[in-house]
């Protein structure tokens, strides 16, 4: 516990306000209800910007006590969460999270099963749509990755939970000294088919959190916007910039320098193969990503497809060795007609390892041997087959690519394009030409080349214009 407190203090004192920033500068969200961990009851949130912790976990098959319209008033009474008939129905993970929050000296905790009235469809729908903001607004998210259900608990908390089981390899050194190490790249027990890493809801809960205290494989890890600290590694301030876990890599997918399809493909691939208890919840489970990406892709997204590349994205596919199935809503009476009709043309209508196609003519991805896409039709959005009102899909990537820009955005360079000397430029004007690898040569010879350096190992080039998005 002292180590966790040390991490918290170090983050606050050394990272300044960097770790208070959310992905995409989301506006803070005030939950309706919180758990008062000192009084063991549910309270209405009255502060505009409360400092609270949130719990991210997997329910599994464990029966859990849930707040309903008939129990909410009882749960607001001090000590109600310790009453035998209620406490016996609260799973260990939630109990331990309450005790941990109290031990850290924090006041409030948010847990979905207790802080959302489960049979109030209006309140439930509202909070589900704002789930990403609830976690983004929390001071710290407790992530329970171990176990397959909510009754596994947060193990290893002295005086709170049972002992944990850890495995480390040791190497003998001189004078009876030993070197202990752990291979953090190996798959962990929590990466199982039914656990935390395979649940769709937990995906955005983890990604949008500013700070995460993760219980995984018997170890505890702190990850914030600036650092990744683990209890089995000695702290070195100069190494913080090089210590990035999987969460950091996932967050990087949410911050593309340009609205290209490759990073969105990686995000969709990670997200869509996960499981949901109710298929129709795919809209809400993706809502955080959708809201954030709407600000990055011109004209936004339609059922998870960016309007800018709508025709290319319609060519999405399931990877060769992935299983897939059609999503079918289970709660027919509690959702709108639109959500009951999960579109077959969208990846949202199917569960599986989904990918958008790569288009080398827009973005140079030299390791992929792919063809080219040409826009040939105009798409429209309608609410139903009988709807006479239609909105045009703003799929204009093709026009942007072919139009030369007079003003080049900051960070970009425009140069006159000169093909390599070994290319036969007659290939573009004659019916027959030499055999050319499509990943090396665009379909049309461009006039200008636009380049931007994104990092030490990443260089992107575009043969069309770049809009100042």
From TrEMBL:
Residues 52-205 form the Heterokaryon incompatibility domain. InterPro entries: HET. This is Heterokaryon incompatibility domain-containing protein. The lineage of its organism: Eukaryota, Fungi, Dikarya, Ascomycota, Pezizomycotina.
């Amino acid at each position: 516990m002292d180590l966790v407190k040390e991490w918290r203090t170090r983050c606050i004192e050394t990272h300044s306000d960097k770790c208070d920033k959310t992905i995409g500068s989301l506006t803070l969200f005030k939950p309706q209800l919180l758990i008062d961990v000192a009084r063991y009851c549910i309270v209405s949130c009255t502060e505009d910007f409360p400092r609270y912790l949130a719990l991210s976990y997997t329910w599994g098959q464990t029966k859990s006590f849930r707040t309903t319209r008939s129990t909410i008033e009882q749960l607001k009474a001090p000590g109600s969460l310790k009453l035998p008939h209620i406490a016996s129905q609260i799973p260990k993970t939630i109990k331990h999270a309450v005790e941990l929050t109290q031990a850290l000296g924090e006041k409030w905790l948010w847990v979905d099963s207790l802080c959302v009235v489960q049979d109030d469809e209006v309140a439930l729908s509202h909070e589900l749509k704002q789930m990403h903001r609830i976690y983004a607004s929390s001071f710290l998210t407790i992530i329970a990755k171990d176990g397959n259900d909510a009754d596994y608990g947060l193990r290893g908390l002295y005086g709170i939970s049972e002992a944990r089981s850890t495995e480390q390899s040791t190497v003998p050194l001189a004078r009876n000294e030993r070197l202990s190490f752990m291979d953090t790249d190996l798959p962990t027990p929590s990466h199982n088919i039914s656990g935390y890493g395979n649940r769709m809801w937990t995906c955005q809960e983890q990604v949008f959190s500013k700070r995460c205290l993760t219980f995984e494989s018997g170890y505890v890890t702190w990850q914030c916007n600036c650092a990744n600290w683990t209890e089995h590694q000695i702290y070195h301030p100069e190494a913080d910039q090089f210590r990035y876990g999987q969460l950091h890599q996932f967050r990087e997918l949410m911050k593309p320098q340009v609205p290209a399809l490759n990073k969105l493909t990686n995000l969709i691939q990670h997200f869509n193969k996960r499981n949901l208890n109710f298929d129709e919840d795919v809209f809400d489970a993706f809502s955080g990503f959708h809201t954030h990406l709407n600000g990055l892709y011109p004209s936004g997204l339609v059922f998870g497809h960016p309007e800018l590349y709508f025709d290319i994205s319609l060519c999405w596919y399931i990877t060769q060795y992935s299983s897939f199935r059609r999503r079918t809503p289970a709660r027919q009476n509690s959702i709108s007609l639109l959500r009951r009709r999960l579109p077959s043309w969208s990846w949202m209508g199917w569960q599986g390892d989904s990918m958008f196609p790569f288009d080398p003519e827009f973005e140079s991805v030299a390791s992929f041997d792919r063809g080219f896409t040409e826009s040939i039709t105009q798409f429209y959005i309608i609410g139903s087959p009988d709807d006479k009102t239609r909105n045009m899909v703003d799929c204009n990537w093709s026009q942007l690519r072919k139009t030369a820009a007079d003003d080049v955005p900051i960070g970009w360079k425009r140069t006159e394009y000169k093909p390599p000397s070994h290319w036969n430029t007659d290939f573009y004007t004659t019916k027959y030409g030499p055999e050319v690898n499509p990943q090396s040569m665009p379909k049309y010879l461009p006039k200008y080349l636009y380049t931007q350096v994104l990092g030490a190992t990443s260089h992107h080039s575009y043969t069309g214009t770049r809009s100042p998005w």
